[in-house]
Design brief:
The structure is a homodimer of 347-residue chains.
Chain A (H helix, E strand, L loop, with lengths): L1 E3 L8 E5 L3 H9 L5 E6 H7 L8 E5 L8 H13 L7 E6 L1 H13 L5 E6 L15 E3 L2 E5 L7 E5 L8 H18 L1 H11 L9 H17 L14 H11 L3 H19 L6 H10 L5 H5 L2 H8 L10 E9 L2 E8 H11 L4
Parallel strand pairs in A: 2-9, 3-4, 3-5, 5-6, 6-9
Antiparallel strand pairs in A: 1-2, 7-8, 10-11
The complex binds nicotinamide-adenine-dinucleotide (2 copies).
The site of one nicotinamide-adenine-dinucleotide has 28 residues of chain B, from helix 2, helix 4 and helix 5.
């Protein structure tokens, strides 16, 4: 399957399928003098046989540990050592973290060289669209970066074979979020098709749905001045839980979404059947216990420093008026804490 | 005087005049919550009285020494320490080097914050247009950077009062280049108005001309795929001389231009009156002796690694068919060396 982005310019194609890596890559690499491959070292070890005909491979620390200034500069220096030119190509192979860091490298080396992302996790469907690149600083995640679009995204689902279940569930968290933002029909189909468990070989369609939904928000607001903020559904409480319980990102987002829908139900007369949703989530494998165990005072403390906040003692929180209709509300820290405590009862 | 850029979008205004800093700045700063000032430490010491009402000042190593990854990251960390937000403003005060580094910082902090450049050298008129940001690596100059436009350029010529003569001459080198690229009329007027010496208080007009000429080339080819390359007139031999004799950049460019016109004369029947040009340049203060003393074999060696080269043993060289009509030629290294040796006689 192919999806074409719908920006006003600099569009690119996202290929989603099994076993497409080498054939699709070749369409692009044949147009360049030199091609450099930046590969997550763990992915390299697991899938070495896929990379045998690659010339210049730069293995990088796995996952999030790559996203430091030191590591990205080391890669840039390696590219410069190898005499990279403005019209060469960089191919970045790995999850969202490798993608973020590799795209950042591509965007600042020689003021920007072409790059292709080959996502190897389910979560990375999220970063396939949006053009955000990033590395971390001691002050926090993703604080340094650029907006820079890839020349293509080649999503070869064969990589999923080695993905641990917790990574699948984490990625699926963002898939759920995107389906809820897309609307009732999307989320209902998603739940229906996966209610007996996640079959990693049958997620192509939902990956594409997720990409399409994200494309919609990003195309109306690339620089996150307004609507794009809705993509943070589940992220306010999610980030606090992620940090406090050291959860995988998408897992935390799922927990955060429950928090959002709980508030929606309070505001809009129980429009969501939270009970069914919760039992579905448990069934497919999510551990919801952090929502029961969280220290709400501590959560409020984290959420108070969120970028979306506009007033002191109030927290900017994204809820759903209904599926497909996100809203940004401001809720006082005391009201929020009371609601979160109340919610513990239904987990 | 004000000049408005003519890109297809994201345009900005360049203000050029004496004593305009604080008043013009205020028009912008009043729109922001927080404003951070990145200032060349040498400029800070010389002009401290101009900066008394600035809140958050970050002094940075003077000139080119700022353009390292370590220094730029230190500034980013300082901005993050001070809790910079996406909608805050950075004001960068200094020459082209401070501008390059400060703009780079602005372009990658929180994926890009607004910034204003306040150039304090004549040479920086060149970087007021073009949106190139850069830092250096051990491999070479300007190898890491972004394309990122300022929100305004405020050129307060009062800063020139403390500019050493060699910096004035260096900046004027690029002014001459821009006038030659603009056409016969421009360069003739420039020579005519300055033939009795450079009066730093009367250069506003030529700064604006230079900016306009650069704007033309940049607007037709922002990413330097073709026409923008002509802005490198004088830079091929210039860079070699700059490196070998440790010259100021614009001084080296002037010497490089003489080399270009010498080749033009060989190809196109002495269309340029080089003798007059040389005596004019000497009169206003340029030391042309490196052109006599250079080791041409060494120069060829440097030029062979130039980015513009397309064929082995040939050097891509920009000459002028006439003023206003640059051409990119390929010249064999042996022919070029012979010509450069021959040229020594006329210096
Ligand atoms: N740019 C964006 O718009 C955007 C959007 C969402 C997330 N992100 C970023 O993405 C990152 C999270 O994404 P992620 O979970 O994909 O990150 P990741 O790259 O850290 O991958 C998670 C882990 O899975 C391993 N892994 C990757 N592919 C594998 C495979 N096929 N088999 C086995 N193991 C594999 C990695 O080595 C790593 O340990 C975060 O850094 C986040 O900031 C960016
Ligand atoms: N981005 C672009 O398009 C572009 C274009 C041309 C040049 N540049 C860059 O600009 C730099 C060269 O420009 P520059 O010569 O302005 O560099 P600079 O910033 O290094 O300034 C030169 C010296 O003058 C000092 N100085 C600055 N203002 C002064 C003042 N008012 N009084 C006294 N001293 C002062 C500085 O401390 C420094 O020592 C290079 O790094 C080059 O790469 C960039």
């Amino acid at each position: 399957m192919e999806f074409h982005t719908t920006y006003s310019d600099n569009n690119y194609t996202i290929y989603v399928d099994n076993g497409i890596l080498n054939e699709t890559l070749q369409k692009y690499t044949s147009q360049y003098n030199q091609v450099f491959y930046i590969i997550d070292s763990h992915v390299y070890d697991l899938h070495e046989e896929k990379f045998t005909n690659f010339d210049t491979v730069i293995k990088v620390p796995r996952g999030e540990s790559f996203k430091t200034i030191e590591n990205t500069i080391a890669v840039i220096d390696e590219l410069l050592d190898q005499n990279i030119k403005r019209n060469d190509l960089v191919v970045v192979i790995g999850g969202g973290a490798t993608g973020d860091g590799g795209a950042f490298v591509s965007s600042i080396t020689l003021r920007g060289v072409d790059y292709i992302h080959v996502p190897t996790t389910l979560l990375a469907h999220d970063s396939a669209i949006g053009g955000k690149t990033a590395i971390n600083r001691p002050h926090g995640k993703n604080l340094v970066g650029t907006f820079y679009r890839p020349n293509a995204v080649i999503y070869d689902l064969d990589f999923f074979e080695t993905l641990p279940e917790e990574e699948v569930l984490s990625g699926f968290g963002e898939v759920i979020k995107h389906a809820m933002l897309a609307g009732k029909e999307s989320i209902n189909r998603l739940v229906d098709e996966t209610k007996d468990g996640l079959d990693i070989t049958r997620l192509n369609e939902f990956i594409l749905y997720g990409i399409k939904t994200k494309m919609y928000y990003v195309s109306v607001d690339e620089k996150e001045d307004n609507l794009r903020k809705f993509l943070n559904l589940g992220h306010t409480l999610g980030h606090a839980l992620e940090y406090s319980f050291k959860l995988k990102h998408g897992h935390a987002v799922v927990l955060g979404i429950i928090g959002s829908l709980y508030i929606s139900n309070k505001m809009y007369n129980d429009i969501f059947d939270l009970e069914s949703l919760i039992s579905y989530l448990k069934k497919i494998g999510y551990d919801l216990s952090p929502l029961k165990e969280m220290n709400t005072t501590e959560m409020i403390h984290y959420m108070s420093s969120d970028k979306k906040n506009m007033r002191k003692s109030f927290i900017g929180y994204i809820i759903l008026r209904e599926y497909g209709h996100p809203e940004l509300i401001e809720i006082s820290t005391s009201d929020l804490e009371a609601l979160l405590n109340e919610m513990k009862a239904i987990i």
